[in-house]
Specification:
Blueprint: E1 2-6, E2 10-16, E3 31-37, H1 39-49, E4 54-61, H2 62-74, E5 78-79, E6 82-84, E7 89-95, E8 101-105, H3 113-126, E9 132-136, H4 147-157, E10 161-165, H5 168-176, E11 181-182, H6 186-193, H7 200-211, E12 217-221, E13 227-231, E14 234-239, H8 251-264, H9 269-284, H10 294-303, E15 305-308
Parallel strand pairs: 1-4, 1-9, 2-7, 4-5, 4-6, 9-10, 10-11, 11-12
Antiparallel strand pairs: 2-3, 7-8, 12-13, 13-14, 14-15
């Protein structure tokens, strides 16, 4: 069993237009696609599609929160959310005829300190049967930047493996709590250390600095070039086959899903990275976010190479 944590979930609305989107105009939307959004929910969706047991949790509020749970139930994804006052946010993606995307992201509800304390206790109950807990995405308003670090410490105390996929101050604090795995990209590492990374050698040095905080697996995504992993002084480069990407949104979440399943199944390091690269590439071949086709995944897995650096 795997638990995914999404504290700042949303109703994701994709608006598809048959003409070019310009500001100051009135548009009729040709097609609308609503989905349960948030990085952790993308992770849960991929895990479920792969036939593994998963439960999604986090904060929800209001009518949108209930609607989000209904969307998860339609996808047959188990959930155990903590409801707070306010309204779960909506995130709108406007996609015009040229496939140009314009996003409008609401800030979401405010979560009280009392709610945060209550959720810590609830989360211990939710993860009782899980070996791995994946924490993804941004924090809602009112949540201090070290809250993920607090959850990581709680989860490690009860023997859970924890994956953290976030950015900014939440990532800084989270790394200090020594999660099992983190997955920043190069830009996030540059922000983390207030520097510019010019080559692979420099990147590895900063990955080692993260590992020195007690993080067992440090993975840096390289976009279409794959990802690089540091584990126990072993450095591995995973390279996917060349593909024509249809949709790169959610590829990182698909990789986190793969790492969650791999840690749950205790895969060897090279297989863990290879599986993550293949899931990310398979997601890029789908127009849906947090989705993959089994045949695409099998093909990507066969053609992904792992190199020891």
């Amino acid at each position: 069993m795997i638990t995914t944590v999404t504290l700042n979930a949303s109703i994701d609305k994709a608006y598809f237009l048959s003409n070019t989107f310009n500001k100051g105009k009135v548009f009729r939307v040709d097609k609308v696609r609503n989905s349960a959004g948030g990085k952790g929910l993308n992770v849960a969706r991929v895990i479920h599609l792969n036939g593994c047991s998963v439960v999604a949790t986090g904060f929800l509020a209001g009518y949108n929160g209930k609607y989000l749970e209904n969307l998860l139930e339609k996808d047959h994804i188990d959930h155990a959310f903590f409801h707070v006052d306010g309204e779960t946010r909506s995130c709108i993606n406007i996609i015009d005829k040229d496939n140009i995307s314009t996003e409008l992201l609401e800030p979401g509800m405010t979560v009280s300190e009392e709610n945060l304390q209550q959720y810590r206790e609830k989360l211990r109950e939710i993860v009782a049967d899980s070996k791995v807990v994946s924490i993804s995405g941004s924090l809602p308003r009112g949540v201090r930047s070290d809250y993920y670090a607090t959850l990581i410490t709680d989860l490690k105390q009860i023997g859970k493996k924890v994956i953290l996929d976030t950015s900014g101050e939440a990532l800084v604090a989270g790394i200090n709590a020594s999660p099992t795995l983190v997955k920043p990209n190069i830009e996030e590492i540059e922000q983390l250390f207030h520097t510019k990374i010019n080559n692979e050698k420099e990147l590895v040095q900063y990955m080692k600095k993260i590992a020195s905080s007690g993080v067992k697996y440090v993975v840096v995504s390289l976009g279409s070039k794959g990802a690089i992993m540091l584990h126990q002084d072993k450095i591995l480069l995973g390279t996917p086959p060349k593909i024509h990407a249809v949709n790169t949104v959610g590829c990182g979440d698909s990789m986190v899903a793969a790492f969650s399943m791999g840690l749950d199944q205790e895969l060897e390091t090279a297989e863990l990275l290879k599986s993550a690269i293949a899931f990310g590439a398979a997601n890029a071949l789908s127009s849906d976010t947090g989705y993959f086709d089994k045949h695409d995944f099998d093909r990507m897995l066969a053609d992904t190479t792992i190199t020891v650096l």
